[in-house]
Amino acid sequence: MADASGNNNVVPVIDMLHFPAQLPELIKACEENGCFRLENFDSILPVQLMSQMKAVVTELFELPLEIKERNVDVIVGSGYNKPGKINSIHEGFGLYDIASSHAVDAFCNQLDATPQQRETIESYAKAVHELITDIGQKVGQGLGLKSVPFEAWPCQFRINKYPFTHETIGSDGLKTHTDNGFFTVVQDDEILSGLEVMEKSGKFVAIDPCPGTLLVTLGDIATAWSNGRFYNVKHRVVCKEEGIRISIATFLLGPRDTMVETPLELVDSEHPCLYVPFKAENGVLWIGIRSAKSGVGFGGHETPSGLNSSGARNLGGFSAFLKEDENKLMNRGGNNENLMERGRVKPESIFNATLLAASGQPFVYGNYSFCSCC
């Protein structure tokens, strides 16, 4: 299938006007590509509102630094990030929960938004949340589920600016990663490209600008929730030409107070459950090793070094465990080591860390914010 920009076999196109006929294609895109291009969603998120939001975002980035820095962190990955030593070609604002009118109002107050800017931000937040909920419902329908919980899950909002120059051509505006939430809806720049996704073969493919559409990418929680069916696609942003690239990304995270678990309909004798239920807390994913029969874990409640009450070693806010035979795990020596001393390799994601732990390979402890940027 061709994507909306004309490239063949890169990003499938999902037409919001063609449901329920598009349900099989939607699930196929989630499983094989880990991303898809969304079009004809104007009844929920008008293209005119997207243009207005892009204009507001551009104005926000022109604010004085002392005002921009009022957009403080609520969780890791939220709030204002100014260009710095780690990434000199990225600047961003953040809002933790777009479904919260209080949070949206606070965001506007922090940045001294004008009445017109405030109206646009509030309208965009409401519309994109409705769209994300609708996509989630369709994913559930495509899988044959009676219901899905996504409407109650928080959505984090990031707006990003990449001031690409001649000197930065060839540099990463954002390094290769997977998003840690369920999925991300990206309003990409209409002119300047830079976003690339990795196919399962390991080949990076450029995502060309396509005005009036959105790109949806699947994250780590989607892989666990779907019992491994959905592909958490790796992606990056690369500077290819001079210019200002702006993107608006909304992340469907995980539930605040309940467990993320694979629906019973997706588990049977031929498809045993790969992940035990886990909890996502405070928007941060941590790595841990579980010594119970559930096997390898990446998380648990935040505690001092050592085993916490759930049996997860060291640190954490993410209690997910890849099921693994306990004897194999113990023989590999993964349960009785401090993660801080496990080696020099730092995994790119929680899933990579889990696989390293399961195989007994050393790795460097790390924490992973729920969201990233596009």
UniProtKB/TrEMBL annotation:
Record domain Fe2OG dioxygenase: where: 151-255
Protein name: 2-oxoglutarate-dependent dioxygenase DAO
Pfam families: 2OG-FeII_Oxy, DIOX_N
Protein function: 2-oxoglutarate-dependent dioxygenase essential for auxin catabolism and maintenance of auxin homeostasis in reproductive organs. Catalyzes the irreversible oxidation of indole-3-acetic acid (IAA) to the biologically inactive 2-oxoindole-3-acetic acid (OxIAA).
InterPro entries: DIOX_N, IPNS-like_FE2OG_OXY, IPNS-like_sf, Iron_ascorbate_oxido_reductase, Oxoglu/Fe-dep_dioxygenase_dom
Protein's GO biological process: coumarin biosynthetic process; response to molecule of fungal origin
GO molecular function: 2-oxoglutarate-dependent dioxygenase activity; metal ion binding
Family designation: Belongs to the iron/ascorbate-dependent oxidoreductase family.
